[in-house]
Write a structure and sequence with these properties.
Blueprint lengths: L4 E6 L5 E2 L3 E2 L5 E3 L11 E6 L7 E4 L17 E4 L2 E4 L8 E3 L2 E5 L10 H6 L2 E2 L7 E2 L1 E7 L23 E4 L7 E4 L4 H4 L7 E10 L14 E10 L2
Length: 229
């Protein structure tokens, strides 16, 4: 699954924003695809115009064949409010709690299998994805994590407990550590959105581990206190 977050998290529901769908260019093609459609990606507002109403309807190949004769036109609903992956210096809305994908790992459209989308903590193209703006989350780190996940942060010399976190330069949607007194923080060139409160490693057992990697490999994970507003 395309997840960058571990199960342990602590937050209040009023800090979850359920208004925005992920921009189409960022959506993962399948559940096992790694990309900006993952859960655990830090995002910004892409579109916030309500003039056309909360939902718009467009023809979409996602529906399959829709041009049968003598049949009403089928159109796919899309949330007009959209988010996209955040880059260095952007005003960060928060972190996605679910993945956004069009198909399962076999290429079958989740549109026709909503139960599987729910079981895999996924939303469909055009649907609102929950975005966490404040809380404590556990993020996947330095391991490639096999076919299951992706890294949520850059685990370098600055990724230490007590440091602040910002969007990593050159790695949209991911975090990097920054020392509290760093000039970038002081002058606002990079917006701090939280702090690292704990970190550690985990070792995969006899089988592949979602956040450690292949059998026997070691991967990192961290607890981060995020506050994007």
């Amino acid at each position: 699954m395309a997840l960058r977050i571990l199960p342990f998290r602590q937050y209040a529901e009023q800090d979850v924003i359920n208004l925005y769908a992920l921009n189409g260019a960022d959506i993962n093609a399948q559940l096992d695809t790694k990309g900006n459609g993952d859960a655990g990606v830090f995002v910004k507002i892409h579109k916030g115009d309500l003039d056309d109403g909360p939902v718009e309807y467009n023809s979409s190949s996602y529906l399959g064949k829709t041009d049968y004769p003598y049949v009403g036109r089928d159109q796919y609903p899309n949330n007009v409010l959209q988010i996209t992956v955040a880059e260095t210096g952007d005003s960060v809305l928060g972190m996605t709690l679910n993945q956004t994908a069009k198909a399962d790992e076999n290429g079958e459209k989740l549109l026709y299998y909503p139960q599987k989308a729910l079981e895999n903590q996924a939303v469909l193209s055009g649907q609102a994805v929950p975005v966490l703006s404040r809380g404590i989350v556990t993020l996947n780190g330095e391991s490639s994590a096999g076919a299951f996940g992706n890294n949520a942060y850059i685990d370098d010399a600055n990724w230490i407990v007590g440091n602040k976190v910002c969007i990593a330069e050159g790695s949209p949607g991911k975090l990097t550590g920054v020392a509290p007194g760093h000039a970038h923080i002081a002058h606002g060139a990079r917006h701090k959105i939280g702090s690292i409160i704990a970190k550690g490693t985990r070792v995969a057992g006899a089988t592949e581990d979602q956040f450690a990697g292949a059998a026997g490999e070691t991967g990192g994970y961290s607890m981060v206190n995020i506050h994007c507003h």
